[in-house]
């Protein structure tokens, strides 16, 4: 099931229309996701229970939850986050990339 956050506005609009919804629903859902930053479809209070059921049946709702942020230096922050299982691979890759960049900078005399 695709993550709703992976859709562009236009792609989400197309998908909702294919599910029998009107175009204005895209704007409502977009506001809930990116302006009100809800954590579940059930928090989208101005949507019908039928539409919420369609969303649950057609999309996953996975997001990165920021747990804590610690300032390490003026331009560096240490962020602890909680990732959905489907996104854990990306955290590992990011950690390797950050480590590689640090080693490259150190080795090149920067």
Q: Helices and strands: which structural class?
A: alpha+beta
Summarize model confidence as the mean pLDDT.
77
The counted number of beta strands is: 2
The number of distinct helices, counting runs of at least 4 residues, comes to 4
What is the approximate shape? elongated
Give me the strand/helix succession. Answer: HHHEEH
**If you compute it from the alpha carbons, what radius of gyration comes out, rounded to the nearest whole angstrom?**
19 Å
The biggest sheet amounts to: 2 strands, antiparallel
Uncertain regions spanning at least 5 consecutive residues: 103-110
> What amount of the residues lies in strands?
5-15%
Helical proportion, percent range:
40-55%
Tell me the distance between the termini.
45 Å
């Amino acid at each position: 099931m695709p993550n709703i956050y992976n859709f562009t506005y236009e792609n989400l609009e197309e998908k909702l229309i294919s599910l029998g919804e009107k175009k204005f629903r895209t704007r409502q859902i977009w506001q809930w996701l990116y302006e009100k930053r809800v954590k579940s479809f059930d928090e989208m209070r101005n949507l019908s229970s039928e539409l919420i059921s369609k969303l649950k049946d057609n999309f996953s709702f996975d997001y990165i939850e920021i747990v804590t942020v610690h300032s390490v230096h003026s331009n560096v922050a240490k962020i602890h986050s909680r990732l959905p299982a489907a996104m854990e691979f990306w955290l590992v890759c990011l950690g390797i990339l950050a480590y590689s960049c640090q080693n490259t900078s150190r080795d090149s005399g920067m």
